[in-house]
Amino acid sequence: MDRPASRPLSEIAAARMGRRAALKSLLAGTAALRSLLAGSAAMAVAPRLAGAAPAEHDPSTLTFAQPPHVIADDHQVAPGHRAQVLIRWGDAVAEGAPAFDPAAQTAAAQERQFGYNNDFVAFMPLPVGSDASDHGLLCVNHEYTNAELMFPGLTLKDKLERQTSEQVAVEMAAHGHSVLEIRRQDGVWAVVPASPFARRISLNTAMAVSGPAAGHPRLRTKADPSGRVVMGTMNNCAGGTTPWGTVLIAEENFDTYFGGDPKKTPEADSLARIGIKGKSRYGWSRFHDRFDVEKEPFEPNRFGWVVEIDPYDPTFTPVKRTALGRFKHEAATTTLLPDGRVVVYSGDDEVFEYLYRFVTKGRYDPRNRLANMGLLDEGTLAVARFDKDGSLTWLPLVWGAGPLTPANGFGDQGDVLIDARRAADLLGATPLDRPEDVEVNPANGRVYVMLTNNTKRKPEQVGGPSPRADNRHGHVVELSPPGAGKGRRARHDADRFRWEILFLAGRREDGATTHPASDRFGAWLSAPDNCTFDNRGRLWISSDQGSAQRKNGIPDGMYACDVDGPGRALTKFFYACPRDAEMCGPAFTPDNRTLFVAVQHPGEDKASTFDQPSTRWPDFTDGMPPRPAIVAISRDDGQPIG
Amino acid sequence: MPDSASIAPIAREADGRPALWVCNRCGWVYDPSLGDPLGDIPPGVPFEHLHDGWICPNCGAEQDYFFH
Ligand SMILES: [Zn+2]
User: What is the distance between the alpha carbons of residues A393 and B56, in angstroms, rounded to a whole number?
Assistant: First the structure.
């Protein structure tokens, strides 16, 4: 399991910090560059002291004033903006949903109510294909559940033993996805009641499996001998949207749901590689055999995929697109090539895992929406190798080529996709510091990869795109396909890209390489997780520090920076989550006048429970636990944000 | 030689082996039979005997976030 980084420290080229970033550091004194070169050893050196003249003017194009950069029970937004809580866990989604009663929850009610731990958010305009910004569908993932915060009487230590079958059923219903119809009137957003589009997707929603692994013997179970029909989706972290107006939701930490001893199954090696060790974070295997790998060793192979949903058709059967590979998909971001083929980027969110890309064989047909529904079933999946010379090479995961043969246990392309991690290991992919969201900047055609953190990277594993040992604060890597800088003419299908580091996050004493003027005009951040771009190509980053939030003393929330021009990598703080929450799902309306964000797991702390939570955001009512919720942010004057 | 950690009772699975512990933040599992290669913990160390500074190798959560 100890897979070292591909490049030793001695091979780091200063140039790989990036031409522009290196220049900035030189302007700020050379300390940041030196600390980068020396890894963690020199990180006590602060770049500001080396004779740099403090910036007199704010070079950023972002003009909002920052809210207090402190952790609080309530959320905070930049002055001159309002933050409206649009929908909370338990609020009505589907017709007939009862009012939320936290003391009397049922799975039947939860199947019609907004799920738990909202993550990815997509705003899909109505009508389909328009750029309407006052009316649309809000598509929201519900990643996971916290039983000790959802139900009375449970604690972290006893929840597995004490949870009831009905509570487990509520948890399964609280996973998945919600589709809501929403409308903006006089600057205020509202959910349209009893909308024909309203839909909840959960662990109980039947889904089709398509692509090369559909029907594979390793996807068959007692309940589904065809290997083509899976009940539900889970741990849907981030996602993406397609040019034809569907939503992609990514199955991430699916390993955490399975009990039973994996060593007693025919899938032992595969289950080990994905992290299944015989103990679940959930009590589901007590009540449902399919979550016990000794009883259903292939059930875990039916998760870890990207699922496509058509939010405009509430009867659409969600489809697991196996051609995109199986791993802990943080997200799935698409971009259109000039010739109509479609590219999907996806990070595998775990320490020392990889970055993947899929290129479709077929072409997008803008005149026939439904003709595009099979596009993601055929194409080439590849994984990234980063080299010290600043190049990135995409290595195809194609059965029969190179090491991906029966001699190495790959009987067909289905095996390659099911065990994409193992295939990528053999191809020599570059292990990264938790690759999370990957997004394409529509303004410059470059690709931005959020690398959240990796406290386990050792000094001898430092190098290339991972320049920092014990990387607690994470960083952002910028990829340039050939032709980048010319918007849509960037060749995202090319075999080789260039890469550089946009910035290392953290405080100066941690070796941060954000723009030096961030210290005066901006704010520091830690653990970049999800991101999006505004219409001017500026990067908006949501953060997830996890339990380090208290240690760092800053809230998770929304940050933004320029990626081009004199304000490049000058990070500013825009919105603070309430205590012990992480920020997810940033999504702008097409007019950029609203930014939707997802406040996930407010009050998730080691001692926090339903009965005694660390915050009761957003209701602050006795007896009401904290509730994950979607927040709509807009400017008081109604102008575009930023 | 024995410190407070090494004399603490060790939680066990039904079959008697030292318990597997789960990170509530990210679901990562500490299996004593595997240790934590990324954190230089060799196989055979029960969770209760991990040094105070040990944190979840995947998400960085402290030991208080783990349950079994
Ligand atoms: Zn963890």
Answer: 32
Q: How confident is the model at residue B7 (pLDDT cuts 50, 70, 90)?
A: low
Comparing CB atoms, the residue among A1, A277, A546 nearest residue B37 is: A1
pLDDT at A596: 98
The predicted-structure confidence for A172-215, as pLDDT tens digits, reads as follows 999 999 999 999 999 999 999 999 999 999 999 999 999 999 99
Rounded CA gap, A46 and A42, in Å?
9
Which of A107, A74, A189 is CA-nearest to residue A634?
A: A189
Q: CB B29 to CB A278 under 8 A?
A: yes
Cβ within 8 Å, pair A455-B68: no
**Which has more confidence, A7 or A328?**
A328
Q: ipTM of this model?
A: 0.86
Residue in the structure block whose two tokens are 């109509």: A340
Cα–Cα distance between A505 and A556 in angstroms, integer? 13
* B62:A606 CB<8 A: yes
* d(C-alpha A281, C-alpha A349), whole Å: 18
Q: Which phi and psi (to 5°) does residue A572 adopt?
A: -120, 155
Measured in angstroms, the CA of B51 and the nearest CA of chain A are apart by 15
Whether A107 has a pLDDT exceeding 50, the answer reads yes
Domain CATH number, residue A551: 2.120.10.30
* Dist. CA B8–CA B5, nearest whole Å: 5
Q: Which of A290, A312, A178 shows the shortest CA–CA distance to A229?
A: A290
What's the CA-to-centroid distance between B26 and ligand 1, angstroms? 4
Higher pLDDT, B15 or A100: A100
Q: What is the mean pLDDT of chain A?
A: 91
Kindly tell me if the per-residue pLDDT of A4 is higher than 80.
Answer: no
Question: Between β-strands A199-201 and A319-321, what pairing exists: parallel, antiparallel or unpaired?
Answer: unpaired
Q: CB-based contacts of A389: which residues, under 8 Å, 6+ apart?
A: A13
For residue A12, pLDDT beyond 80: no
pLDDT above 70: residue A22: no
Phi, psi of A104 (to 5 degrees): -140, 55
Residues of chain A with pLDDT > 90, as a percent, come to 90
Is A16 inside any structural domain?
A: no
pLDDT band at A606 (very low <50, low <70, confident <90, very high): confident
In a domain? residue A518: yes
Question: Within 13 Å, how many C-alpha atoms sit on residue A442's CB side?
Answer: 9
A575 residue type, one letter: Y
List residues, by chain if needed, whose CB lies under 5 Å from ion ligand 1.
Answer: B 23, 25-26, 28, 56, 58-59, 61
Residue A14 lies in a domain: no
**Chain B residue at shortest CA distance from A547:** B61
Over the Cα atoms of chain A, what is R_g? 23
Percent of chain A exceeding pLDDT 70 equals 91
Burial class (CB in 10 A: 0-12, 13-18, 19+), B42: exposed
Sheet of strand B21-23, all strands in order from the earlier edge strand to the far edge = B29-30, B21-23, B66-67
More confident residue, A258 or A44: A258
Q: CA–CA distance from A232 to each of A71, A180, A506 (Å)?
A: 36, 19, 38
**Per CATH, is B1-68 categorized as 2.30.29.30?**
no
Degrees, nearest 5: CA angle A142-A146-A147:
120
- Compute the residue count for chain A: 642
B1 to chain A nearest CA, in Å?
28
Q: Rounded to whole angstroms, how far apart are CA atoms A372 and A306?
A: 16
Specify if A3 maps to a domain.
no
Domain extent at residue A572: 46-252+304-635
User: How many domains does chain A divide into?
Assistant: 1
